[in-house]
C-alpha cells in the first residue's frame, strides 16, 4: 500500500515536471529528459522496498521531492519568470538527487537492519 502511494506521488511529480518542461523547454534537446532521473531513481528504490519502514521513508522523500520540485518550478516559470529561468532544468535534477540520497540510503539501511534482525531470530521482525 505504501509503495503504491509512493508510486502515485512520484508519477504526479513526473507529470508536473513534464508539464513545466513542455511549457518552458524544447523536447528536441539531448539533456531534456534528464529531469526525470530523480523520479525514476526513487521509483526504482520504492519498487525494491514496497513495504516496511524503508518504504515509509521513501514515501516521505517522494512527497518532499514532488512538493519542492513543484514549488521551485512554479516560482521559476509562473510566479517570477525570468530570462534565466531555464537554468532550473540544469540544476534542479542535481539538487533533487542530492536531496533524495539520505532517504534512499536510509531505506537501504532499514532494510539491511531488518534482514539482520530476521537472521538473528528477533521476534520484532515480520515475515
Q: How would you characterize the overall build of this protein?
A:
The structure is a single chain. The chain is mainly alpha-helical and 127 residues long. It has one domain. Helices cover 74% and strands 0% of the residues. It contains four helices and no strands. Helix 1 runs parallel beside helix 3 (53-79) and helix 3 (53-79) runs antiparallel to helix 4 (88-119). The two termini are 16 Å apart. The model has no long low-confidence stretch (mean pLDDT 86).
Secondary structure layout plus pairing:
Blueprint: H1 2-24, H2 37-48, H3 53-79, H4 88-119
Features of the shown structure:
127 residues, mainly alpha, single chain, 74% helix
What does the overall shape look like?
elongated
Strand content: under 5%
Tell me the domain tally: 1
Rg, alpha carbons: 17 Å
Sheet having the most strands? none
Q: From the structure provided, what is the oligomeric state, counting identical versus distinct chains?
A: single chain
The sequence of SSEs as H and E is HHHH
Distance from N terminus to C terminus (CA atoms, Å) equals 16 Å
Uncertain residue ranges: none
Mean pLDDT: 86
Put the structure in a nutshell.
It is built from 4 helices and no strands.
Amino acid at each position: 500500500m505504501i509503495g503504491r502511494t509512493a508510486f502515485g506521488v512520484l508519477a504526479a511529480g513526473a507529470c508536473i515536471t513534464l508539464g513545466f518542461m513542455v511549457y518552458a523547454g524544447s523536447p528536441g534537446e539531448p539533456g531534456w529528459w534528464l529531469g526525470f532521473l530523480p523520479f525514476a531513481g526513487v521509483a526504482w528504490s520504492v519498487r525494491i522496498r514496497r513495504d516496511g519502514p524503508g518504504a515509509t521513508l521513501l514515501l516521505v522523500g517522494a512527497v518532499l521531492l514532488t512538493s519542492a520540485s513543484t514549488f521551485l518550478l512554479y516560482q521559476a516559470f509562473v510566479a517570477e519568470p525570468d530570462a534565466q529561468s531555464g537554468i532550473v532544468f540544469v540544476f534542479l535534477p542535481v539538487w533533487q538527487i542530492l536531496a533524495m540520497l539520505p532517504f534512499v540510503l536510509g531505506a537501504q539501511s532499514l532494510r539491511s537492519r531488518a534482514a539482520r534482525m530476521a537472521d538473528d531470530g528477533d521476534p520484532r521482525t515480520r515475515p
